[in-house]
Every structure is written in C-alpha cells, then in structure tokens.
Design brief:
Number of strands: 0
Radius of gyration: 15 Å
Order of helices and strands: HHHHHHHH
Number of helices: 8
Helix content: 55-70%
CATH superfamily: Hypothetical protein af1432
CATH class: Mainly Alpha
Strand content: under 5%
Distance between the termini: 49 Å
Structural class: mainly alpha
Shape: globular
C-alpha cells in the first residue's frame, strides 16, 4: 500500500476529527524524519510510515466505548483495527502483523523492540508533548528515558530549547 493511500484512508477513517488528522500527520512527519535521519533501509521506513499513519487507529473506538482514549486502552483495542485497515491491500501479512504489534505497544516504553517501535515511540512522544505544551503544560527539560536515536534527540532539543533563567 502506498503511504499516501494509507494517509487518505486514515483521514477518511478519522471522520472529520481534525485533532486526530493533525496528530497522525505530525507523528508521520517526525517518524519519517527520525527514520531517514537514522539511515534506516527503505523497507523499515515503509513499515514506520504505515505504523505512524495508523498508530492511533483505536482512538475513535476507545472514545465511544470508554469515553476517552488513554494509551493502554488504545493498545488493547488496536490490533484488530489495524488488520482490518490493511485487509485487501497489497501489504504482506508479515508487515501488517508487525504494524499491528507496534501499534499495540506504542505506549509501552520498555522494553523497546526494534527500530520501528523506537521511532514510533519517539515521534509520538514528541507530538504528544508538544500538544501538551501548546495546551499550557510546562515544556520538558529532557527527553523521555527511552529516547536513543540521534535524530530523535536532536528534534527534542530543537522543539524544546532550554529556557534562559
């Protein structure tokens, strides 16, 4: 499946929820930047891009079913939705299962299981944190402990520069 097709399908799935659309596009952009900055191969980049697009696929269901969409409930509900999203596409089943696993663990910070998981964790944390800062929460002074990529750390430093005392 082309990444652009996945984005269009996920935007449609978002049913006009502009926060969800903005969030997925922001995570997608940072995940792509981290993956490319780390020199990951094309196949891994493709999996990262698709995982970034669908990483919050369970949010609408969680909001309807539970009244909110905390990370652990997203993880619990996401795998079947990911499989359904990619059903009938040309994505190999192995790729779909890898995406389903990553999306089902995108709020599980330890252990980090490979490059795809790490990049999605870092990109989603950066976006969630920047959204929080825009909503009035204080900016972080250091990245989350699971950050390990050079590119993710550089993005953190650029997004949340130290405030002069």
């Amino acid at each position: 499946m082309l990444t652009g097709e996945a984005i269009a399908k996920m935007v449609d799935f978002s049913a006009g929820n502009l926060h969800d659309v903005d969030h997925l596009l922001h995570v997608f952009g940072l995940a792509k930047a981290i993956a490319e900055g780390e020199g990951l191969d094309a196949e891994t980049l493709h999996v990262i891009e698709l995982a970034a697009v669908v990483h919050d696929i369970a949010c609408p269901l969680c909001r309807k079913k539970y009244g909110s969409a905390p990370g652990k409930l997203q993880e619990k509900e996401s795998a079947p939705l990911v499989r359904e999203f990619f059903a009938g596409t040309d994505e190999p089943q192995e790729t779909v299962e890898r995406i389903a696993w990553v999306v089902s663990h995108h709020h599980t910070y330890e252990p980090v299981e490979g490059a795809v998981h790490r990049v999605i964790l870092e990109a989603d944390w950066l976006v969630n944190t920047s959204e929080g800062v825009r909503d009035g929460r204080p900016a972080p002074t250091r990245p989350a402990p699971f950050f390990a990529t050079r590119t993710g750390l550089a993005l953190f430093a650029a997004m949340f520069p130290p405030v002069a005392q």
